[in-house]
Amino acid sequence: MGNYGDTIPLSHLKPGEAGRVMTVEGGHGIRQKLFLRGLFEGSIVRVISCYGPVTVEVDRNTVSIGRGMAQKIVVRRL
Q1: Pair type for strands 8-9 and 73-77
Q2: In CATH, what class is 8-77?
Q3: ∠ CA(14), CA(18), CA(21), 5° rounding?
């Protein structure tokens, strides 16, 4: 997970846990898709559900993303 110390993929957080997005592993396309949903470096996310798509709350909005995409979002647990 890069040089970010104690980081994990977003998909490893459990419902109710929160994390700060440290980086997104992937190209411009995935970064743009996530940016448009409010997920970018520095964003604080709280996992609502991790069954099926990963559903998170970010900036008072609910966002659902596929598990593969959630694997590419590197967070530091808060």
Answers
A1: antiparallel
A2: mainly beta
A3: 115
Contacts of 77 (CB under 8 A, 6+ apart): 6, 8, 13, 17, 18, 19
pLDDT in tens, 55-73: 999 999 999 999 999 999 9
Could you tell me the residue ranges of all domains in the chain? 8-77
- Please choose, from the candidates 60, 44, 59, 48, the residue with its C-alpha nearest in 3D space to the C-alpha of residue 15: 48
The whole-model pTM stands at 0.88
pLDDT of res. 52: 87
* Bridge-based pairing state of the strands 8-9 and 18-24: unpaired
- Say if CB 10 and CB 70 are below 8 A apart: yes
